[in-house]
Amino acid sequence: MTTASRRIPVLVTPAQRVRIAKMAKKAGLPIGEFMRRAADSHLSRDDEELLDGMMRQLRKSTVRTIAAADRAIAIIDASNRRIDAMLAGRPLKVRGGTATRKAA
């Protein structure tokens, strides 16, 4: 752990000072360490909120990506069926009508 070496003067009301001192004493910490830990826990919550937002976006983009992949697979499957039909000499169904393969 890095040694604390910079000061941040913070003004508090007398009532806040008493509450902070009581909480620090109850936690078994000096006031400065108690304040550092309180600030760190607040910063951690900010990081967690940021990560939560990133995860929500990731889930949304994953759903869109899976849907796009499913559409692409369906198009490829349909294309493969048309190719199989052409190679087998069967009538070929195409949008707007039926096409057949010419006999060689």
Summarize the structure in words.
The protein is mainly α and 104 residues long. It has two helices and two strands, in the order H-H-E-E. A hairpin with a 2-residue loop joins strand 1 (92-94) and strand 2. Helix 1 (14-27) crosses helix 2.
Q: How is this fold's topology laid out?
A:
Layout: H1 14-27, H2 31-88, E1 92-94, E2 97-99
Antiparallel strand pairs: 1-2
Mind summarizing the main beta sheet? 2 strands, antiparallel
Binned, the helix content reads: 55-70%
Q: Percent of residues in beta strands?
A: 5-15%
What's the SSE pattern? HHEE
Shape: rod-shaped
Widest β-sheet, arrangement of strands: 1-2
Provide the gyration radius in Å: 33 Å
What is the count of DSSP helices, taking H or I runs of 4+ residues? 2
Enumerate the spans where pLDDT stays under 50 for 5 or more consecutive residues.
none
Domain module count = 1
Question: How many DSSP E strands?
Answer: 2
Distance between the termini: 81 Å
Helix/strand-derived category reads: mainly alpha
